[in-house]
Design a protein that fits this description.
Blueprint lengths: L12 H6 L1 E5 L4 H4 L2 E2 L2 E2 L7 H4 L4 H5 L12 H11 L4 E7 L26 H12 L2 E6 L31 H19 L5 E4 L7 H14 L4 E2 L11 E2 L14 E5 L17 H13 L3 E6 L9 H17 L19 E6 L2 E6 L5 E5 L1 E2 L2 E6 L8 E5 L5 E6 L2 H4 L4 E7 L5 E2 L5
Parallel strand pairs: 1-4, 1-10, 4-5, 5-6, 6-7, 8-9, 9-10
Antiparallel strand pairs: 2-3, 11-12, 12-18, 13-17, 14-19, 15-18, 16-17
The protein binds ligand FHN.
């Protein structure tokens, strides 16, 4: 059982305020798009090398096909910022497959030296992020590396019969010293400001090995944040399970990595897309519980983002465009004692935001105690009438009255200006 002995804190205000970021999983696996020699993977597509047991010498050949003629970093970053409302991007500089999506000098298995395209994808992305003031984070698989004899390899999820992997027989420290550390140094010295390193799946890493990575990162860029998955509880923030939303407000900085369908890397057969409404509700929940939402898009091999991803992210972006004040820079609230089927709250000092997800006749909030100064529709500032009263049972009750036109609508946000710094949610009592 994990022992939690400190509250993770990035010390970085931009990260606490950001709330919503774009994860990009892009690598050679996008070429296979979930299928290798007629066999489809049922697992997340970026794992196809491991899941379908593709030999290194075979998988490597994919690099010769990598031709991202539709990738436009400038357009992508602009879209993420302006249309999708994202405040940071985390890009897979090297995933478990071991392939560097940048020009690495310490491993020829990289996007410049091993492909016909010869483009330093990370350089293009970093330039665009710096141009648009988008914070850039880099995913780096520090433990699993299926291309290297000494990198770790997960034993699970094998669809084919193969002998179990003996990670103990591998010289992980050798891999750490000869690939991970030199590559981290390249990433943190060659691409300008890197705001976050997103380590993942630490597996058998010792505390000392996690510390070696952290010290290196901080020595090169002291403000660079380290994800929770550096292992040994040494990250600057907590990374939740993939697609797992903490049920309650959670102390310290935290982030939820999540998919739009059931995969991170592109899979041509995965059409299990989440609805934009579900994404909005999740984002609001995460904000009310104090976290950040890192939502993934997996480009195709040619660099284009699947149209459905764009459509969903645009719709969520529209909500943020109108109601972003109730999302960005919000802080976690206390526990409201009732489960509301129509909405969720977020907050900033002296303001409580009521995100409404269903048509309602009025917004009744029992056990909310607050001296309300004003209530208004966030998207246009129009004032709304409200009542602050006590029920016959003696519980506090605030009700925002809604005009007829608004009663038929859903997915809007109402702001309550209150005298108190934070609303008081009264506990249930007998
Ligand atoms: O194995 C990876 C997976 O491919 C993906 O990158 C996710 C993102 O959080 N992290 C690992 C599984 O948790």
């Amino acid at each position: 059982m994990k022992k939690i002995d400190r509250i993770p804190d990035t010390g970085q205000q931009w990260y606490k305020d950001a709330k919503y970021g774009l994860f990009i999983h892009w690598g050679l696996y996008a070429i296979l798009a979930g299928e290798y020699k007629g066999q489809k993977t049922d697992h997340i597509s970026e794992w196809i090398m491991n899941t379908l047991n593709i030999p290194v010498e075979e998988y490597e050949k994919l690099a010769g096909e990598f031709c991202p003629e539709r990738f436009c970093a400038d357009g992508l970053v602009r879209m993420a910022k302006e249309s999708w409302g994202m405040k940071y991007i985390v890009f897979t500089s090297k995933h478990h497959e071991g392939f560097a999506m940048y020009h690495s000098k310490c491993s020829p298995y990289n996007v410049v030296d091993a492909t016909p395209c010869g483009r330093d994808i990370l350089k293009e992305l970093a330039d665009a992020c710096h141009k648009y003031g988008m914070k850039l984070g880099l995913y780096y698989s520090q433990a699993q590396d299926w291309h290297e004899p000494d990198g770790y390899m997960a034993n699970t999820m094998m669809e084919n019969e193969k002998p179990p992997v003996d990670n103990d027989a591998r010289d992980f420290q050798h891999y750490l010293d000869n690939k991970v550390k030199p590559q981290l140094k390249e990433l943190l010295t060659g691409y300008g400001e890197i705001s976050l390193i997103w380590f993942d799946t630490p597996m058998g890493m010792t505390r000392e090995q996690s510390m070696e990575c952290i010290s290196l990162v901080k020595s090169l860029q002291p403000d660079c944040i380290i994800s929770g998955r550096i292992g040994n509880q040494l990250g600057d923030y907590t990374t939740t399970g993939d697609n797992f939303i903490p049920r309650l407000p959670f102390d310290g900085d935290w982030e939820l990595p999540a998919t739009l369908n059931d995969t991170w890397g592109y899979n041509k057969d995965d059409n299990n897309w989440k609805e934009p409404e579900q994404i909005i509700r999740t984002l609001v929940k995460i904000c009310s519980r104090g976290g950040n939402y890192l939502l993934n898009a997996g480009p195709r091999a040619d660099g284009s983002i699947p149209e459905k991803s764009v459509e969903i992210l645009n719709a969520v972006g529209q909500y943020l465009h109108e109601n972003g004040e109730g999302i960005y820079e919000t802080q976690k609230l206390g526990i409201y004692p009732y489960e509301l089927d129509w909405g969720e709250f977020t907050g900033k000092p002296h303001r409580m935001f009521i995100h409404v997800f269903k048509p309602c006749k009025g917004l009744g909030m029992m056990n909310l105690s607050a001296n309300v100064k004003k209530a208004y529709l966030l998207r246009d500032g129009s004032e709304l009438a409200y009542k602050v009263e006590e029920t016959c049972e003696g519980d506090s009750m605030v009700t925002v009255e809604l005009p007829q036109g608004l009663r038929k609508q859903a997915y809007y946000c109402v702001c309550l200006e209150i005298e108190e710094e934070w609303p008081v949610f009264e506990p249930l009592r007998g």
